[in-house]
C-alpha cells in the first residue's frame, strides 16, 4: 500500500510538471504586432520593409515589380508566409511567386504550400502560401537550415506578358508561426541571432574629416526577445523520464524483496 501511495503521488507531480511544457508546444499565431502593418514594400533586400509576425503588410505596385518585406523568426518557430495579390479587372494570365530568404540571402525551401500560382485572365486575385521548415537554434556550417534572425519575403510576377507590364496591383503579406517547442531543440545555439545589416549609413570617421560606413541592423525582434539558448522543454521530458525510471527501479526492488523473503516458521512447529 505504501508503494502504491508513493507511485500515485509521483504520477500527480509529474503531470503538474508536464502541463507547462505541453502548453508551450501548442500551436500559436504569435501575434506580436498590433495589426497596424506597413503600407509600402521595398524594391531590394536592403530596402525591404520590416513588419512583425501577426501584422498584415500591404503595398501597391505594378506587374513586373519586385516587392520585398522582412520579418523576425526565432528558434522553435515554424513560420507560414501567406500573400494575396489583387489584380485589375482586365489582364492576361499571370504567374506570381513568393520566395523566402534568410538573413544570409539563402533561399529557404517551403515544406508545403502554393508558392507559385497562375491567375487566369480576368481573375480578381490569387493567394500564395509557404510553410517554412522549423527555425533551429544552431546548425552545421554546411547545412542550409533556417536560423533565428531576419527573413525576407520577395513577391513578384514571373513570365508577365508584355501587355501586362506596369499594370497596377496591390498585395498583402502576413506571417504566422507555430511554436514547435522541444521537438526541434538541438544541442547548441547561436551566440547572437542571425540579423545582418539591411542598410548602410554614413557618418564622420574617427578623425572627423572622413566618413565611416556602418550597417544598420533590423529594428524588429520577437515580442519576448530572442530566446535562442540551451533551455527547452526537452529538459522537462528528460527529467520526467529519469524520475519514472527511478520509480520503476524502486518498485522492482520492493517487489523482489517481498517475494524473496523466507517465510517465518512458528516456534515448536
Task: Outline the structure in words.
- It is a single chain.
- By secondary structure, the protein is α+β, with helices and mostly antiparallel strands.
- The chain has helices spanning 2-24, 234-260; strands spanning 49-50, 56-62, 66-73, 77-86, 94-102, 110-112, 116-119, 125-132, 149-158, 168-179, 199-204, 211-216.
- Strands 1-3-9-5-7 form a five-stranded mixed β-sheet, with no helix packed on it. It has a five-stranded antiparallel β-sheet with strand order 2-10-4-8-6, with no helix packed on it. A two-stranded antiparallel sheet has the order 11-12.
- Helix 1 packs antiparallel against helix 2.
- The longest helix has 27 residues, at 234-260.
- It is elongated and about 115 Å long.
- Residues 9-34 and 204-208 have low confidence and may be disordered.
Which word captures the global form? elongated
DSSP strand tally: 12
Kindly report the average pLDDT value: 77
Low-confidence runs:
9-34, 204-208
Largest sheet: 5 strands, mixed
Q: Count the helices. How many? A: 2
Order of helices and strands: HEEEEEEEEEEEEH
The CA-CA distance between the termini, in Å, is 31 Å
Helix content: 10-25%
Protein structure class: alpha+beta
C-alpha-based Rg, rounded? 28 Å
Strand proportion, as a percent range, falls in: 25-35%
Q: What strand order characterises the main sheet?
A: 1-3-9-5-7
